[in-house]
Amino acid sequence: MSWLVTGGAGYIGSHVVVALQDAGLAPVVIDDLSSGHRGFVPADVPFVEGSILDRALIADVLRSHEVEGVIHVAGYKYAGVSVQRPLHTYEQNVTGTAVLLGAMEEVGVSRIVFSSSAAVYGTPDTDLVTEDTPKAPQSPYGESKLIGEWLLRDQGVATGLVHTSLRYFNVVGSGRPDLYDTSPHNLFPLVFDALLDGRAPRINGDDYDTPDGTCVRDYIHVADLALAHVAAARALAAGSPLLHAYNLGSGDGVSVRQIMDAMAAVTGIAFTPEIGPRRPGDPARIVASGELAARDLDWRMRHSLDDMVASAWSARRAHP
């Protein structure tokens, strides 16, 4: 028996694959390589290049590899860009999830861990986000993730699908030097690129109502995130009761200024960030509680901010 990881050649998905192997579980990967990398998938892991929009292909993979459950990571993950590409975002994230669930029902696979997003909360009016915080997504990306959770819920009612969704904010770091974040939109790669190009990274606003004036966010290490996905898969396989959604949060967060200071300390490159204007819609602080995930999924922050920066920097330098 095996676990199918959709999007398993991507930054997050590949870390999930490694964590599954380390846990003694057998991963299988499907990925269309639109943003993933074939080299991120270990040579001994079965890999199928294809789209989650291809129901026949998914059903064949589920059958041929005797899949007992799915960890659904595949999707279009750029919230800002999703505003310009709403139809593409909905096709990949909503239609793709519906097609996947249809193939699972056809084959009789009844367990799924959904890699959701804290973008389902939008800009919450609270200092600490919990699972009960009202959902008010502010981008097609956030909306698509919330709809994905609804699809799982409705399939659970209709077919007995056993499921849980993991919501998280900013994922950083590298679990291994050969697995790294190649996104052109994420903070860490943007800062590293600026430093290597001799440019000063930018902070968008330093006059927020926070201790140092810059925005405070949740940043979690990708290896910790991967372990939570595996813990959820194991719990579903064992029949342990899980909530339908968990926040993977730090409970306190870090500021953009703290990240810049850690970047300078770890890289050894002294710099003074440029200060730009606030970006419209950026709240001062968004931090989630991870208490329920800690209770049920052994969720914890195993890596410090310096660990996150150092691991990401080491991987970045290994792949100029």
UniProtKB/TrEMBL annotation:
- State the organism's lineage: Bacteria, Bacillati, Actinomycetota, Actinomycetes, Micrococcales
- Per the UniProt record, which EC number(s) apply here? 5.1.3.2
The record's keywords, sorted A to Z, are: Carbohydrate metabolism, Isomerase, NAD
Report which reactions are catalysed by this protein: UDP-alpha-D-glucose = UDP-alpha-D-galactose
**What name does UniProt use for this protein?**
UDP-glucose 4-epimerase
Can you name the source organism?
Cnuibacter physcomitrellae
Q: Which GO terms describe its biological process?
A: galactose catabolic process via UDP-galactose, Leloir pathway
Which molecular-function annotations from GO does this UniProt entry contain? UDP-glucose 4-epimerase activity
Q: What pathway, per the record?
A: Carbohydrate metabolism; galactose metabolism
Cofactors needed by this protein, per the record, are: NAD(+)
Name the enzyme group at the top EC level: isomerase
On whether NAD is a keyword of this UniProt record, the answer is yes
State the source organism's domain of life.
Bacteria
Q: Which Gene3D superfamilies match?
A: NAD(P)-binding Rossmann-like Domain, UDP-galactose 4-epimerase, domain 1
